[in-house]
Amino acid sequence: MKTYEIAVIPGDGIGGEVVPAALDVLNAAADVHGGLKWKFASFPWNCDYYMEHGKMMPDDGLTILQGFDAVFLGAVGDPSRVPDHVSLWGLLIKIRRSFEQSINIRPAKFFKGLASPLLNPKDFDLLVVRENSEGEYSEIGGRIHQGEDQIAMQSSVFTRKGTERAMRYAFELAKTRKGHVTSATKSNGIVHTMPFWDEVFRDVAADYPDIRNSSYHIDALSAFFVTRPQIFDVVVSSNLFGDILSDIGAAVMGSIGVAPAANINTNGKYPSMFEPVHGSAPDIQGRGIANPIGQIWTAKMMLDHFGEYEIAGKLLDAMELVTAQGIKTPDIGGSSSTTEVAAAICRELKRM
Ligand code: NAI
Ligand code: MG
């Protein structure tokens, strides 16, 4: 029996609704699997905690989290009480940075029972691997002068290590999927960093002769995410390009409420963190209608991360069976509640 120890941080808003729903599903998955067990430890670190203690997590919070196999997080943010830069930087971003979660993964697929805004959506199934620690989102730069003499400069930072790490991760993932990696570049317009990106991509691709590789400029690639997303498998990109591409991915899928994400630590020094793409959705908090699929799909990514591919695959199938039956929350055109959707997914999982 394999036991996974998970630090659970529901966070704010609907995080407190979709996380318990996803834990029910994870428990059902463990029952079905038979050989795995969860040990969940829940931490009440959120904006309530901040109102009481003046910080988003205790001073030894990171030390506590470090001992777990993974962090499973809902959402952070209660903008009417705590400014977003305080709450997000005090918890979510602090964990991502301190735990060297240098890769961000966001899948997008044609999801049965979900209305894609594409007129004729083909059966697409892709994964964006985004470099999550450097690139265009560096803090190198500054501003000088006033008035019409104002200058702002910001430097992109591409290290051989960071670039190669993201690309190798993408090629390894492609081995377990359709065997195709696409690079997002812009070497026709950005003359230093992007030709470097292309060089590293060629070097890494040479180590994976069995994996097909392609390269597109980011402008054309973005258009293809809309016009023919079915041609992609794994797409590897810099921090900025991946940020934008993964939002297009979520959009063509049909709703932010279903989009999952993972922040991966690749050096094994710290746990990885699994959190859906959406935020705390204060506008629907407390009504029991939050879509739990983003959080549950995130749980599926955690299973994949642990190498539990078979049960992870079953879980995704169970989710699609449920949406295809029309058991859906209002954001995707249904009238079911958060708990009804989660219960239906548990039921389908156990029936398989
Ligand atoms: P949001 O993602 O919370 O909500 C955007 C819209 O999508 C809202 O209309 C909301 O009702 C809807 N929505 C989101 N998730 C849903 C779900 N699971 N089911 C049904 N509908 C859903 O983004 P927003 O409103 O910009 O931010 C709210 C708070 O969340 C802010 O404090 C923000 O900083 C924070 N935030 C946190 C993130 C995180 O923890 N990773 C990510 C994005 C925002
Ligand atoms: Mg974004």
Q: Based on DSSP secondary structure assignment, what is the total number of beta strands?
A: 12
Fraction of residues in β-strands:
15-25%
**Ligands bound here?**
1,4-dihydronicotinamide adenine dinucleotide, magnesium ion
Query: For the CA atoms, what is the radius of gyration?
Result: 20 Å
| Low-confidence residue ranges | none
- Assembly type of the chains comes to single chain
Strands in their spatial order, largest beta sheet? 2-1-3-12-11-4-5-10-8-9
Number of structural units classed as domains: 2
SS content category: alpha/beta
CATH level-3 fold name of the largest domain: Isopropylmalate Dehydrogenase
CATH class of the largest domain: Alpha Beta
Architecture blueprint of SSEs:
Elements: E1 2-11, H1 15-33, E2 36-42, H2 47-53, H3 61-66, E3 70-75, H4 84-90, H5 92-98, E4 103-109, E5 125-131, E6 141-144, E7 151-154, H6 160-175, E8 180-185, H7 193-206, E9 212-217, H8 218-227, E10 234-237, H9 239-253, E11 262-264, E12 272-274, H10 293-305, H11 309-324, H12 338-351
Parallel strand pairs: 1-2, 1-3, 3-12, 5-10, 8-9, 8-10
Antiparallel strand pairs: 4-5, 4-11, 6-7, 11-12
Bound molecules: 1,4-dihydronicotinamide adenine dinucleotide (NAI) and magnesium ion (MG).
Structural description of this entry:
It is a single chain. The protein has 352 residues and is of the alpha/beta class. The protein folds into 2 domains: 1-104 and 257-352, Isopropylmalate Dehydrogenase (3-Layer(aba) Sandwich), CATH 3.40.718; 116-253, 3-Layer(aba) Sandwich (Isopropylmalate Dehydrogenase), CATH 3.40.718. It is 41% helix and 19% strand. It is built from 12 helices and 12 strands. The protein has helices at residues 15-33, 47-53, 61-66, 84-90, 92-98, 160-175, 193-206, 218-227, 239-253, 293-305, 309-324, 338-351; strands at 2-11, 36-42, 70-75, 103-109, 125-131, 141-144, 151-154, 180-185, 212-217, 234-237, 262-264, 272-274. The strands form 2 sheets. The chain has a 10-stranded mixed sheet, with helices on both faces. It has a two-stranded antiparallel sheet with strand order 6-7. Helix 11 (309-324) packs across helix 12 (338-351). It is globular and about 55 Å long. The site of 1,4-dihydronicotinamide adenine dinucleotide has 24 residues, from helix 4.
